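ARCHIVE RECORD
Type: protein–small molecule complex
Small molecule: iron/sulfur cluster
Source of inputs: curated submission
Record status: active
Notes field left blank by submitter.
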Amino acid sequence: MVKLRTSNSTEQQICNQEYNLAYPDSILYKVQKPARYTGGEVNAIVKDFDATTVRLALCFPDVYEVGMSNLSVPILYDIVNRRPDALAERAYVPWPDMAKAIRDNGLSLLSLENFRPMKDFDVVGFSLGAELAYTTMLEMLNLAQIPAWAADRAEDFPLIVAGGASMFNPEPVADFIDAFFIGDGEDSIIEFIDVYRDWKNGGRKGGKVGLLKRLAAIRGMYVPSFYEVKYKDDGTVASVTQTNAVAPEKIARRIIQTLPPPVTSPPVPYMEAVQDRGVIEISRGCVRGCRFCHAGVVYRPARSRPQQEIIQAADEIIENCGYDEISLLSLSTSDYPGIDDLVGKLAERHQGKHIAISLPSLRVTPGSVALVESLPEKRKSGLTFAPEAASPRLQKVINKVISDEELLATAQAAFDRGWTGLKLYYMLGLPTETLDDLSTMADMLHRIYGLSRGAPGRRPQLRVSLSTFVPKAHTPFQWAAQDDEETITQKQRHLIERVRVKGIRLSWSDAKMSLLEGALSRGDRRLSKVIYGAWKRGSVLDGWTELFSWQRWADAFTEAGLDPAFYARRTRPFAEVFPWSHIESGVTEGFLIREYRRALAGEASGDCHDAPCQACGLQELIDECAASLTHRISAGASSQPPPSAI
Ligand code: SF4
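STRUCTURE (tokenized, with ligand):
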């Protein structure tokens, strides 16, 4: 008999089950980090598999210690397992040594709760937050002995579903997936399970197609097999049309107006996770309007959690999980209303208990340094900020304006207070970027490093991470071309020549990885052949530099007769039909075009924080946005952006 702690913190006996390891010891002894595969964690929920109607496997396409650091699986795990008629179990991709052992021994990928093969579940769901995870999804399906192509799966295979930020352009994986969740999943997963349960209890009327027809009626659910894509001779999309009367012409993103209570009893790993701490999502979405930011659009608008709920959640996580660190998660933590007050209250409440609080995603202001200083149990190794661009011109292009004075004052405050490391994130290859912009960046890095000269103690180091900019679907830069490899290399060289200082360390993202990400993020359905071809050649965990091989992908593109540059490096006309044109984020195309034009003209726009509502489209869907727009109109502004701007 196993006693289990459920997510509402009451101890319940949920099932009679002997605790047993699923994979044989003979395998676990031989692989790296066997704790990835043994389950049985504190707060894991093990229900009676055979007595539950809807069984859902939640798959995260990365290794256990990465997946356990992601919030999407625990949120759905909590919601599903609260229902008496449903259960959710977790699965992560095995590292290649374990994958080989599974195949060599004729085994199958198992869940971490009841150690059931994926094939036993009714539904297998993938959380796809990044394009480079697509081959890993195929690897998991293959290890589960489930055919990758939706058309090859007979009725007795589980339904394969997916959701996550990269599913705002689901087309590259549309031929593998039966149904997608577009947008916030908290409400749609409940409706999904209701529909699945009724279909199953009702004798599976209409078979899989019958189920898909019912699912297509749920707001935010996309059934790709009900749509046909036609292409023009030049390779661009001619049309995306419904082939089934139940399918809506456009799939509207699901948006929850109020965040549901945070998860306070997630499973706690026995091994060290990448983020080894409790996490509370203090707000979703961002009030800023950075034009490069995909998350800024697909999680728009900002929705904050009440302070009291956060304070209570911190108490519960510490009690239920034993963590000594709580991370307050948000796209821009500094923008949480009353963040100083919240941090002050948490610090006071946990004084003397050795509980650390971490604040990711701080804005570049000296106030952020003061905020971090006010944290209890701080670790003074490094502070991280993301200016993204250095020259005032380019900052206006991307709509993230941080004055030199602000950045220098922030660095000065950090050094004065004894921080020994400062990490700065910048991007290379932003639209309209020139070598002059990069010279300005180099000058700024020298000025910042110069400030560290008078710092107390050991001289601080400056680490600068330069990622290649990848234009994303649904953002104002969705029409922009991505820089080619030669240009990026030239820009890197330009910076290296100008930043030859021992205390400043530059690092880059892999240019080929960025090209692949660019092609997949704005790609169409034909790319499924490329993804499959790359996986067949051995690609898996492509986000891991030590496992990534561009050659496999290049061969897969050649075999499919497709060119990654066609997807990534082309400036697209406004008239082009995008592969994701039937997926609606809620932000209108008119708003995105206006923002793109303003970017090219070097004009910044107001955000939802300091400026009146910009009428991005969400005012039609979100009460708070509508109220903000009403306020703007009553203050004398137009409800529409200026027509000349569109
Ligand atoms: S509708 Fe207005 S307030 Fe709401 S997200 Fe859009 S611009 Fe911001």
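CURATOR ANNOTATION: Residues 585-645 form one domain.
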